[in-house]
């Protein structure tokens, strides 16, 4: 399960609206335990796929190193990532799976239709490695609403 | 020196997020890491012994692939190595994987993960 508060949830969706028609991306920092990825902060990242930013995203590794270090200094770990799908469903794509390597992390996708955020889904990258990795639908709980979304 | 292990690989490092090793070069440090935790090796290196394409290793803030001396770069006690799998994706199909992946992807019969907020 992915847990986050309403402020973070809204920030993720707003980021997708701001970068439309391009994909946004960011990192989810928090704690992971007992099958729950508990998000305490969403950190915006730049999309370096400027050649095809409307349907691709990539976070620069050096930015990821910096985000991870800043999180570690505050006792937070990387528990997931988010990105948007402009004018495309909030479902993982073949590209998303092929380029996902953080097993155990949550991958949050927001569909942004004509500049307006629509569905937001979370998928857990399950498996033990590259050979058997797979996305699983993941329940998402937004704290302020106190309602499980799945 | 310290080597920071990303969460997906901690299952192979006795759940440690940081492993301390004694080494004088980047190569020695990585070798010491995989000697301590042999299961990490196949997740970091290809069958040909090269760092997997999606695995980035940073010495402090520098990608070791772009260091002039690469693995032979000297390190000290205060240096840190970070192992960082890449983060990428997007809604476009992925090259040769497109057909196989599309069959498994959400848009072709797989139901969504969670309900819309709207």
Helical proportion of chain B, percent range:
10-25%
Number of strand segments of chain A:
10
Low-confidence stretches of chain A: none
The major β-sheet of chain B equals: 5 strands, mixed
Total discrete domains of chain B? 1
Task: Tell me the structural class of chain A.
Answer: alpha/beta
Q: Name the average pLDDT of chain A.
A: 95
Name the quaternary structure.
heterodimer
Largest sheet of chain A: 9 strands, mixed
- Biggest β-sheet: strands ordered side by side in the sheet of chain B: 2-1-5-3-4
Q: Which range does the strand content of chain B fall in?
A: 15-25%
- The top-level CATH class of chain B is Alpha Beta
What is the molecular shape of chain B? globular
**Beta-strand level of the residues of chain A, as a percent range?**
35-45%
Termini separation of chain A comes to: 10 Å
Instruction: Give the name of the CATH superfamily of chain B.
Output: Beta-grasp domain
CATH fold type of chain B: Ubiquitin-like (UB roll)
Q: What is the annotated CATH architecture of chain B? A: Roll
Could you characterize the architecture of this molecule?
The complex is a heterodimer of chains A (150) and B (118). Chain A has 150 residues and is α/β, with parallel strands linked by helices. Chain A contains 3 helices and 10 strands, in the order βαβββαβαβββββ. Chain A has helices spanning 6-19, 61-73, 94-98, and strands at residues 2-4, 25-33, 36-45, 57-59, 77-86, 106-113, 116-126, 134-138, 140-142, 147-148. Chain A has a 9-stranded mixed sheet. The termini of chain A are close together. The mean pLDDT of chain A is 95. With 118 residues, chain B is α+β, with helices and mostly antiparallel strands. Chain B has a single domain (2-85), classed as Ubiquitin-like (UB roll), CATH 3.10.20. Helix content of chain B is 19%, strand content 19%. Chain B has helices spanning 26-36, 41-44, 98-104; strands spanning 2-4, 18-20, 55-59, 62-63, 80-85, 87-89. Chain B has a 5-stranded mixed sheet, with helices on one face. In chain B, strand 3 and strand 4 (62-63) form a beta hairpin. Chain B is globular, with a radius of gyration of 18 Å. Residues 95-118 of chain B have low confidence and may be disordered. Chains A and B meet through strand 2, strand 4, helix 2, strand 5 and helix 3 of A and strand 3, strand 5, strand 6 and helix 3 of B. Strand 4 (57-59) of chain A pairs antiparallel with strand 6 (87-89) of chain B, so a sheet runs across the interface.
């Amino acid at each position: 399960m992915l847990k986050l508060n309403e402020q973070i949830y809204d920030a993720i969706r707003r980021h997708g609206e701001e970068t439309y028609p391009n994909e946004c991306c960011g990192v989810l920092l928090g704690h992971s335990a007992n099958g729950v990825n508990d998000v305490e902060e969403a950190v915006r990242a730049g999309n370096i796929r400027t050649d095809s930013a409307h349907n691709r995203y990539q976070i620069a590794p050096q930015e990821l190193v910096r985000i991870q270090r800043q999180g570690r200094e505050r006792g937070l770990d990387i528990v997931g990532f988010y990105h948007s799908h402009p004018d495309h469903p909030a479902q993982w794509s073949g590209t998303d799976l092929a380029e996902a390597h953080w097993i155990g992390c949550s991958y949050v996708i927001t569909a942004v239709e004509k500049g307006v955020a629509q569905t937001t889904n979370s998928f857990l990258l399950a498996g033990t490695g590259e050979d058997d990795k797979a996305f699983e639908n993941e329940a998402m709980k937004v704290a302020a609403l106190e309602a499980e979304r799945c | 020196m310290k080597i920071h292990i990303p969460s997906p690989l901690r299952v192979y490092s006795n759940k440690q997020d940081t492993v301390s090793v004694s080494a004088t070069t980047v190569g020695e440090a990585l070798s010491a890491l995989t000697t301590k935790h042999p299961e990490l090796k196949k997740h970091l290196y290809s069958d040909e012994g090269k760092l997997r394409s999606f695995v980035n290793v940073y010495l402090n803030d520098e990608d070791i692939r772009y260091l002039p001396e690469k693995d032979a770069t000297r390190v000290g006690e205060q240096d840190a190595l970070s192992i960082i799998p890449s983060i990428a994706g997007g809604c476009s199909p992925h090259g040769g994987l497109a057909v196989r992946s599309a069959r498994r992807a959400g848009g072709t019969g797989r139901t969504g993960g969670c309900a819309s907020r709207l």
